[in-house]
């Protein structure tokens, strides 16, 4: 943390945009995939595709790095007691005004992807059905579709702490199959608004995301339908996709 309570630059300890991956403070951290994640590939995608380059030390840059670090901890640290950006006892997560979820409820739902993609659509209309996915299957599904990762940027900051509101952009390239649809190689992106609330220690206690789930999933349906054998052959022909379950 810096003197204002935000995350300090993390480039000196292994990642340009995320803290709490390496160093003495993480020597006992329990990692979902057995080791700290690597973000070299998605960092390159971020740097090549971002629409904003925030000045070093700006509030926008600090919020952007806070969000990236929070997402890293939620997806890759298996023990909430190892979280440094989140108060695990108070934290709640809400999407599009739905019921707030605790960390335990997110885990029971199958992790971050499933919590983020909650839907009220009838079961037969769900291209991606969070109720039928596990944390592992969700990770493999999106890591396969987006082998270079899913980049994130803060596009505009509306307010600073303790209630942080911002507009964001998520993007990737569909270079692998998704739920029986062939890869298109095209840009997949969506925008949204988020509101974070932090406590006196600058730990996140409340997160609200507002976005159109259909903007993401409709782009993943553009590819031709594959039969099961073609989909499996495409997956196994590429080393990146074949190892989709490994850390990013």
From TrEMBL:
Gene3D superfamilies documented for this protein: 3.10.450.50
InterPro entries this protein is in? NTF2-like_dom_sf, Pathogen-related_defense
Q: Membrane spanning segments where? A: none
Report what the protein is called. Pathogen-related protein
What is the organism field in this record?
Answer: Opuntia streptacantha
What lineage does UniProt assign to this protein's organism?
Eukaryota, Viridiplantae, Streptophyta, Embryophyta, Tracheophyta
């Amino acid at each position: 943390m810096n003197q204002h309570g935000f995350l300090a630059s993390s480039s000196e300890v292994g990642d340009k945009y995320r803290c709490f991956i390496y160093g003495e403070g993480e020597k006992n951290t329990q990692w979902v995939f057995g080791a700290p994640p690597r973000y070299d590939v998605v960092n390159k995608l971020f740097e090549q595709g971002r629409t904003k380059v925030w000045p070093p030390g700006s509030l926008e840059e600090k919020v952007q790095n806070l969000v990236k670090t929070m997402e890293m901890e939620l997806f890759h640290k298996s023990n909430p007691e190892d979280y440094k950006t989140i108060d695990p006892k108070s934290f709640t997560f809400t999407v599009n005004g739905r019921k707030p979820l605790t960390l335990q409820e997110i885990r029971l739902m199958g992790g971050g992807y499933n919590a983020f993609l909650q839907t009220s659509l009838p079961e037969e209309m769900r291209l991606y059905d969070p109720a039928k996915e596990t944390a592992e299957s969700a990770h493999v599904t999106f890591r396969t579709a987006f082998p270079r990762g899913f980049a994130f940027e803060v596009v505009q900051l509306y307010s600073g702490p303790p209630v942080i509101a911002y507009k964001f952009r998520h993007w990737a390239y569909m270079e692998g199959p998704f739920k029986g649809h062939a890869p298109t190689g095209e840009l997949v992106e969506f925008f949204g608004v988020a509101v974070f609330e932090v406590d006196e220690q600058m730990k996140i206690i409340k997160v609200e995301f507002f976005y159109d789930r259909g903007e993401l999933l409709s782009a993943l349906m553009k590819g031709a339908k594959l039969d099961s054998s073609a989909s499996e052959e495409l997956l196994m022909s590429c080393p990146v996709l074949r190892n989709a379950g490994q850390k990013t």
